[in-house]
Amino acid sequence: MKTCWQILGIEATTDNNVIRQAYLALLPSFHPENDPQGFRQLREAYESALKEIASPVTPAVEEEEDADTPWVNYLLWIFHDFLNDAERRFQPQAWQEFIQQINNLSFSQIEKARWPLCNIAINTFPISYSCLKLLSDRLAWEQGGDDRDVNNEKVQDLLFNIRCGDLFDYTQLQHLPVVVQNQTIMFYDALESTFFGYPHLFSQLMAQHGPWIVPDDLCFQRRHLRWFSSLRWSIPELFPIALAWQEAEPDNETPRYYHFVQRVFGGEGDSLLPELCAQWQSNPSTHFDDLLLCWCRQHRPDYFPLLVLAIEAREQVDINGEPLLYIPGSSARTCMLWSEALHCGVLSPLSESFIARRLNYGAPAMSEEHSQHPCWLMYLVADRLACAEDPDEVLLQQLVHKLDRSTICPLEAIIIRGLLVQAAAVTTPYESVTIDEEEVSTVAQQSTEVSGGSSGLWLVIRIILYIGVAGHLLSKLLHHST
Q1: How many domains does the chain have?
Q2: Residues 6+ away with beta carbon under 8 Å from 194
Q3: Domain assignment of residue 325, given as a range
Q4: Burial class of residue 106 (count of CB atoms within 10 Å of its CB; 0-12, 13-18, 19+)
Q5: For 303-320, how does the pLDDT look when each residue is reduced to its tens digit (9 = 90+)?
Q6: Single pTM value for the model
Q7: Does the residue 33 lie in any domain?
Q8: Are residues 382 and 467 part of one domain?
Q9: Which residue of 133, 325, 350, 375 has the fewest C-beta atoms within 10 A of its own C-beta?
């Protein structure tokens, strides 16, 4: 029969990081659904290996011809037994009592026990890092020392875990059997490790079942919110957690983002759109780009190719935040998103023909038979821009008039504003129209408001468009006269 080390494929070790990495490396080969027996065997080997290092032989200080050695060895045995006490190992008060025993020793005795105690802590799992901080502060492990007989890298890992603290209040597990306590902590510890270090394994771990509970702990609930949101899983129980977090930290954008994630992937429809658009406009980021695009694909698929174009315009800036000169629809990310949308099977013929024309320049132009589609006007302008052509001024004026409507959809408003800004950018460099760049950027910035906007704002946009059209006609007139 194979030992736990043979199953894990490693030599016997007391390094729990090596054990955990070996377990995670083998995990994809033993899926709980496809190979339940292999998975169970791997899991048991992992737990057995951790159990072996959780109860190591307590290192004793070599016998010396002084009176300190018996006291130091006695302290090490007490610490070992304390860490195996299911009722006391997670209680801060019990740790304070242990530290009081250290305080009763002499300075030389404490110095001799300082790093052996650290070595025991390194080889113990699970352990309360929040409680261990009490001992670390007392023995000044952070300050280091030249006399320590312990691996420096392992000490640094331990100190890092102490600074991070516990995943939750482990005392909430005290009513459970020790085995269940250990398995629960190991499970959540593996989740936290894979979330940052092995994201490709994180979803597999999240899908596992076992004897663990969800602790009623505020910080841990927020960690759950982060975990599920990263997988784009919507859990109704997480909604109030996100709301409470927002109320507690109104200036923190993180809980606001997670709240939107839960609502978007929970399938919320039109009631979410105004809030989502407002958030995207006021706090633009790639995270909210993805959320807005995901919502659009679910509820407004025919707007999706146009929204991609609007988001592309916002992203095309240099290191100083100045707009770059480019042909709309030419970025690699835009083409990739369009290609994905083309094969999703939910687009209208108009949307499909627009994307096909952009990805394959030999494809036919959009047909007039789709002129009754509500997005027809926007697609006409977008098609001209993507061909590096000036959109017809009549089309642009019609877009401006659509923005004046109080009932305009917030998503449609975002798309139209993006098209107008792109039209102004295309007209200006190629037709040598004299337009104040600061004025254009100001209009673009003001146009990021979700509401319909004041009539004065759109008057400025009209003036810029009219200047562009006039410059265009003037340049052609001069060209013919010469």
Answers
A1: 3
A2: 24, 201, 202, 205
A3: 300-481
A4: exposed
A5: 999 999 888 877 776 677
A6: 0.68
A7: yes
A8: yes
A9: 325
